[in-house]
Design brief:
Oligomer: single chain
Number of strands: 0
Number of helices: 11
Mean pLDDT: 95
Low-confidence stretches: none
Distance between the termini: 63 Å
Largest sheet: none
Strand content: under 5%
Length: about 180
């Protein structure tokens, strides 16, 4: 397979006809944008059957940062669309063998942590109140995501006390205080 055939296959599979394949092959920015569009179309599909093959194709890109960006976008989009942690766990377990194809260990580890963060978020969204030790195992990014978005008083209280930074603790305290005022 060549980069040109990979890009053409991805675009055709997503029904994207307005991207010049030669431009995408020649310019990593055009290609990255095209991958983002492919990810968007793929993530909005009800079927998850093509996800692993799409990721495998994207991972053949010669610029690993371009492929990492696309795979992270896919993981994020799918995590926001699934019905719960069990569905995401199953989906991500099928993707992990592809993620292991990244040449840079840092990229593999980043994706594994991102998947772990989303599993944590989905379990919290499903009603699980984490322990301080569980909270300590997620990234700053996920703690901040929860501090700014959670509506659970218990989760906000946990973040207010055990968040990994002063900023996260303050956001959670402010939001928990605002929630108390609104419920009175």
């Amino acid at each position: 397979m060549t980069l040109r055939s990979d890009v053409a296959e991805l675009l055709a599979g997503a029904g994207i006809l307005d991207v010049d394949v030669d431009d995408a092959v020649a310019d990593e920015h055009v290609r990255s944008s095209a991958y983002q569009r492919v990810v968007s179309v793929t993530a909005s599909s009800r079927s998850r059957d093509r996800d692993r093959a799409m990721v495998a194709t994207i991972l053949r890109d010669p610029i690993e940062m371009v492929s990492k960006t696309a795979v992270v976008a896919l993981v994020d989009r799918i995590a926001m669309e699934v019905t719960g942690p069990a569905e995401f766990r199953q989906w991500s377990s099928e993707l992990l063998p592809e993620i292991d194809r990244f040449t840079a260990e840092g990229n593999r580890e980043f994706l594994r942590r991102r998947i772990h963060d989303w599993l944590f978020h989905l379990s919290v969204k499903d009603g699980h109140v984490p322990t301080p030790a569980e909270l300590a195992e997620v990234t700053y990014w996920m703690q901040r995501f929860l501090a700014t978005g959670s509506t659970s008083p218990a989760v906000l209280a946990l973040l207010a006390e055990f968040g990994s930074s002063k900023k996260i603790r303050n956001i959670a305290k402010d939001r928990a205080g605002n929630r108390k005022l609104r419920t009175q």
